[in-house]
DNA sequence: GACCGCAATTCTGTATACAGAATGAGGGGA
DNA sequence: TCCCCTCATTCTGTATACAGAATTGCGGTC
């Protein structure tokens, strides 16, 4: 693997896992020393992270980890809701029925995974498989590209949410509705059910954010 | 200005103006010599163009200018229609009324600009001002980012379209409907009128593409 | 005549040196 | 005591050298 890929992956993970909270300043030499590579691949990694919006260039102040304020999260979902709803609509029209039939069966049993003690790994893996199947079936490069662009920010946002058991059960039900609509080829239902799911997810995140009296992570600018 | 910015702007313009048609291979040394700078800023420019999707990395074959096939144009509009409709909806709710009142008056007189001989510069400038005002009023960073991501590809696609006078007059009317809806704060009309306008624009481009028996530019993969 | 292998050329990826710009601290003057 | 100017430090931007990988072309062999 190239050194620039390694640096990109390491820095990206550091940001997504909140090891570098918003506002952290990045300097080339510092990170080059830390990762034991030269400045050249670091520069490339910085460029990719800046293009993704995880880093922002403060004029005269270098690169800092971007903020993730309440309003940013709202704007994130303003875009996410419209494009993922449209993606779901297209998937309902274009999907391989067998693939989603299988996923439907798995989501029908998802409640068991959620009662599986504290190990939600299997459930999250199932959601990831659904996402991957939808990416595959969307078959629209720009739509997919826009979704991919949002994902790193969503990963950060999700860490602000408190997922309680009730919310997870509800979310699993929402997913099941979406998958059923896709299996049935009901594109309008797939789109609307996706919008419902995402609006509820947003509400859950915002409730967590607003409930938090003070965290270093939040910056309600 | 930085050398990497110069290189990026030059290469981007070369691609958008079809001086480098799809499939053209890019090598670092070659472009560094052509633009009389070293490979370092060229690498940064390549990275930005690749992130935008104007260049694609063919494994083992270097970077080439991305294709713009019929299906790519369709996929481009699949995304464009949903996000620009949503943007128009938000603008109708968030706009500064005076700004769009002014634009409404200008679009009401747009027919005169279109009869202004072959100089359509003023009309295109008016459309550009509308785009800028909408970008400003959208006030949603991710939505705006997604639109910006599409623009370079739209510039390329537009060069494939044959804009006849009738189409331009119709488009001006569609724009007027959109601006009126925004002035009135009618978000649903603004969204639907935008979708209508973009679907007609797509149809116009596809008619031009399909009408072209053979051009070196097209690659119907 | 065709296919396989080797060698040379070329390209990318990385490291590093150097120059110019900007920032921050420290000292001097008002 | 506060403000401004200057100098030093540090950072980014660029050039370039070097190494490893890959491709292409040529030659030999089957």
Automatic annotation (TrEMBL), chains A, B:
Xref: PROSITE patterns: HTH_GNTR (PS50949)
Cited InterPro entries: GntR_C, TF_FadR/GntR_C, Tscrpt_reg_HTH_GntR, WH-like_DNA-bd_sf, WH_DNA-bd_sf
Transmembrane parts of this sequence: none
Xref: PANTHER family: TRANSCRIPTIONAL REGULATOR, GNTR FAMILY (PTHR43537), TRANSCRIPTIONAL REGULATORY PROTEIN (PTHR43537:SF49)
Protein name: GntR family transcriptional regulator
SUPFAM superfamilies cross-referenced by the UniProt entry: GntR ligand-binding domain-like (SSF48008), Winged helix' DNA-binding domain (SSF46785)
Keyword Signal on entry: no
Keyword annotations from UniProtKB, A to Z: DNA-binding, Transcription, Transcription regulation
MF (Gene Ontology): DNA binding; DNA-binding transcription factor activity
